[in-house]
Amino acid sequence: MTTLRNSFDGGVDGSVITVAGSGGASGDPLGYVSGSVVYSSTHAHSGTLSAKLPAAGFRSVGHELPAPAFWIRFYAWLQGHYTGSLVRLWTGLDASGTYSGGINTRADGTLDLICGGATVNLSGTVPLNAWVRLEGFWSTTGGAELRRYNSPESLTVSGSVTTAANLAGSVSTQEVVRVSVATDAYLDDFDVSSDGWIGPTNIDMPPRPVFLRSAVHRAASW
Hints:
It is a single chain. The protein is mainly beta and 222 residues long. The protein has one domain (3-221): Sandwich (Jelly Rolls). It has one helix and 15 strands. The strands form two sheets. Strands 1, 3, 4, 6, 11, 12, 13 and 15 form an eight-stranded antiparallel β-sheet that branches. A seven-stranded antiparallel β-sheet has the order 2-5-14-7-8-9-10, with no helix packed on it. It is globular. The two termini are 26 Å apart. It comes from Sphaerisporangium album. This is LamG domain-containing protein.
């Protein structure tokens, strides 16, 4: 069981994020960076820095946690509602292989959860010019789920959606993508885990384990 965490606080304001330099005080190093993503003090969810995905050109960062089931948690600061990708999941390392699903944004401000060829819409708009926490789960056997937290440190879900469609196979790269060429976007506290839902940073703890119902029943019977 593994959890990868990156707060982007180990960089230098304005400098380009690289895979080799992304660890240290930031946490676990990223597995993948595309385009000139930079450390920025303009908006920071925790600490003093976040990852700025500038509007010009393609920008993305990714963790690489090969797993048949995994959870993603990150904080996003968006400045406009556009149609595009926000999270993309790939079967290969370095965002290669087959696209397996993720999260898309819509021009109406809502999000789509994508898994196993299914697309389901999460109603309710993503707040603009504010931090919002997004958490997702994808699996080869347990479907997928997307949760949105408009109050970024809350335990109360603002909206959620699920699908019974499964991933076709294990995913190796979990990539967060800039959604528009019109505005900059900011990303902070980007974690990926094979252990369970991650939760907010204000209760920074290991992800909560997921127990099978039958196992819990047996334990209660002993």
